[in-house]
Amino acid sequence: MRWIDTHCHLDAAEFSGDVLAVRQRAREAGVEHCLIPAVAPRYFLAVREMAHQFGDSYALGIHPLYVGQVGQGDLVELERALAQHRDDPRLLALGEIGLDFFVPELCTPAMRAHQESIYRAQLLLARRLELPVILHVRRSADRLLKHLRELAPPGGWCGIAHAFNGSEQQAMGFIELGFKLGFGGALTFPRAVQLQRLASALPLQALVLETDAPDIAPQWIYRTAQERSQGQSQARNEPAELPRIGAHLAALRGLPLDRLAEQLRHNAEQALPGLSRLLDSKP
Ligand SMILES: [Zn+2]
């Protein structure tokens, strides 16, 4: 089986000591390809070099959790980097961008307005450069959808609403605009009933799989609040966990694992049209 981790922050500080071993473990577990999204201009070089080193791919963008530190100059830098690397076959998307209305500091009226202006500017760039978009959605689906509808390119959008955790109506909103929905470790918790219901009921063609490593640890490595209060840090998620998360999704959908992996691979190629030529064509 060949899996694709459509969202994996291999450039994160949590991996700085052993990223080679992390990527190798993922490969041994059957993860053929990782998309590494950048979160701010200072990571652009690292994600590009990693994607080339590992035979993976990357996206460039400004993440909503970083917009407090960025201004117009960073948008100029993003535009310049996208132009400079537009012929790089491993640059597959603009991302990670979006809106975060969960973190309190980002929810003041001024910060909401700033987030939305940086988000819109990046959507316009994606539209102009005809790039797929990797979206960060946290308590912000309706607002993200509003801007996507207003700025939709004539042929529709393309990309992934990552770590999706909204309503069925919101899910269908993204799907109708051309997006796939990214599911990962959050699915694996018994209490995640609503998310599991969505992952089993949505059209199979609309789903992609991701770890969001080092974040969103699946249930089997997650440390509870009590464990953390006793001094353990939150476990580090890794792309090698992807196949086991895939097994959860296969069980939810009542599908054989190989058939699910094949379909998800196809979905990822649709969400990221540049991906096909990077994948090993051998079965
Ligand atoms: Zn992310």
Features:
binds zinc ion; eight-stranded parallel sheet; single chain; alpha/beta; 283 residues; 8 strands; 15% strand
Could you walk me through the main structural features you see in this protein, from its secondary elements to its overall organization?
This protein is globular. It starts with a strand and ends in a 12-residue tail after the last helix. It has an eight-stranded parallel sheet with strand order 1-2-3-4-5-6-7-8. The protein is an alpha/beta fold and 283 residues long. Helix 1 (19-29) links the parallel strand 1 and strand 2. It contains ten helices and eight strands. The structure holds zinc ion. Zinc ion (ZN) binds next to loops.
Short description:
The protein is of the alpha/beta class.
SSE blueprint and pairings:
Elements: E1 3-5, H1 19-29, E2 31-37, H2 44-54, E3 57-60, H3 72-84, E4 91-100, H4 109-129, E5 133-138, H5 141-150, E6 159-162, H6 168-177, E7 179-183, H7 193-201, E8 207-209, H8 225-229, H9 242-253, H10 257-271
Parallel strand pairs: 1-2, 2-3, 3-4, 4-5, 5-6, 6-7, 7-8
Bound molecules: zinc ion (ZN).
